[in-house]
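User: What would this chain look like folded?
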Amino acid sequence: MASIPIKILKGYPNTGKLELFPSGTVPATPTDNISWTIDAAAGVDSIVSIERKFLSREIFSSHPGPLGGREWGANINRTIRSRITYRYSILWNATPDQQVPYKYDPKIAVRPPNDSSFLIKLVMKIALAVFVMLGVSKIFLGTKKGSK
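Assistant: Here's the prediction, encoded as structure tokens.
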């Protein structure tokens, strides 16, 4: 299990965008611990919630929640067996008295450690099926007389 910190470096109230580090889609594996921490100079007062976007598969073993102070966290479910790009929203406030939170939509890409083996297994199954079909067709069709 690795710890993957996502740092909120800056908030832009005019657009709702957050500047995160690392930026872009964050790579992760099952059992990783994800944490979101607000930098003191970010201009972000608080995270209101972290929510899964509609039609995105759940990746966390329990919903992300506050860990104390300016940090939130969650663990990625260890039972994930296929690639998932998790789309979610961070709802955040720039000031303590803000009524309607801003919303920013980053991504986390979960890649199981043995994900590359899927293609190898698929190729092996196809090759086995071809050999079996060739063997069965040879048994039923036989070989013609005079062929070598």
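DSSP finds one helix and ten strands in the chain. If you want, I can go into more detail on any region.
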